[in-house]
Amino acid sequence: MVAGDIDGDGDDDLYVANDDTPNLLWRNRGRGTFEEIGQVAGVALSEDGIPQAGMGTDLADYDGDGRPDLFVTNLAEESNELYRNDGDGAFSNRTSESGLGPPSLLMLGFGTFFFDADLDGDLDLFVGNGHIIDNIALYSDTITFEMPSQLYRNLGGGRFDLPGPAGPFAARYVVRGAAPFDFDDDGDEDIVLSQNDRPALLWRNDGPAAKRSVAVTLEGRPPNRDAVGAIALLAIGGTRQMRLARTGMSYGSQGDRRLVFAVDPGAAPYDLTVRWPGARDDEHFAINTPGAITVQQGAGRSGPSKH
User: Fold this and answer.
1) Which residues are CB-contacts of 274 (< 8 A; sequence separation ≥ 6)?
2) What is residue 10's predicted lDDT score, i.e. its pLDDT?
3) Which residues of the chain have pLDDT under 70?
């Protein structure tokens, strides 16, 4: 399950990936009530209109239009699915045209998340794979128990590319949980993984991260000190990057609370807008240099809310 404001009305909705039954999208109607709109919104079924075996899921703005989109991993011989948020609570299936469909057909995806692996401003996509049947190779000539993980690079324009296997992506694992985590505090996000009955894995991102990112930790008012449900937008020139403050993600996982934005060191200061959950107004913060920063609710200058 993943939570986020999919319709821009200021409260968190809930998306649930189900195994062999239609996925569910619970629209938050306020006052503690929800309405299930998965099929109406276009995120319950595959591109062919059938239920799939959903495992992991994530929510993020992969195409930079200011609306969070949905991604779901599925069983082998089913493609993973990408649902683009078209606004007003409606989604369109972009699995085939994005390039994410065919490379996933022989994989069984579990842990998954969007993150900017190369700090170019576009969100890339990680998928950790591993089958559930340890002797599946006895019954299939094409599917294995251990599988390579996949890191799809965002090319812009709604397209992704899967580079050739290198480093840890050239080996095979039985991945379940997966989350981004900048464990060495160098400014780029690394990957931490759990496996099925095997050791956990930690993969370091060796990209050119020096002074190319801003890592924002949001500190909300009690009782929501982690600011769960907040939306952060960083404006650099004519572009904006969106990041969501949340808890559960991927597959049975919790990622780093820091929200990482790619920046041009020569373009500072950067304008950060935070839409705090339940607040009437947005807050704006000027960030003067790359690096890590903690932003406290009530410490910025207020402006009209864009919910």
Assistant:
1) 218, 227, 230, 231, 232, 233, 282, 283, 284, 285, 295, 297, 300
2) 87
3) 209-210, 304-307
